């Protein structure tokens, strides 16, 4: 992930809020997914920078993940959480599936 990706994501988040007619993502099911976690040696942003970005955008930290399609790291868990989030948006449920988050 690089800073340009976050700039682009910020525009997408604003577009989602506009499309949903909301000022924040509190009741919008959103999952922030960072790919290529297997390329950690080429990483340009720290985990804390990504978490800070997510918080600033109003994305729940429980739904910020890193995964690798190459190694399959964290993939199943991300899919489970995404489906849970889609079926149980924040307004409908305050419960979160227990996380086995690997970052």
What count of helical segments does DSSP give? 3
Side by side, the strands of the main sheet go 1-2
> What's the main sheet like?
2 strands, parallel
The succession of helices and strands, N to C, reads HEHEH
Let me know the average pLDDT. 76
In terms of DSSP E residues, the strand content is 5-15%
Shape assignment: globular
Helix content: 40-55%
Ranges where pLDDT stays below 50 over 5 or more residues in a row are: 92-103
Distance between the terminal alpha carbons, to the nearest Å?
14 Å
Q: How large, in whole angstroms, is the Cα Rg?
A: 14 Å
Structural account:
By secondary structure, this protein is mainly alpha-helical. The protein is 41% helix and 6% strand. The protein contains 3 helices and 2 strands. A two-stranded parallel sheet has the order 1-2. Strand 1 (32-34), helix 2 and strand 2 form a beta-alpha-beta unit. The longest helix is centred in the first third of the chain and has 18 residues, at 3-20. The radius of gyration is 14 Å and the shape is globular.
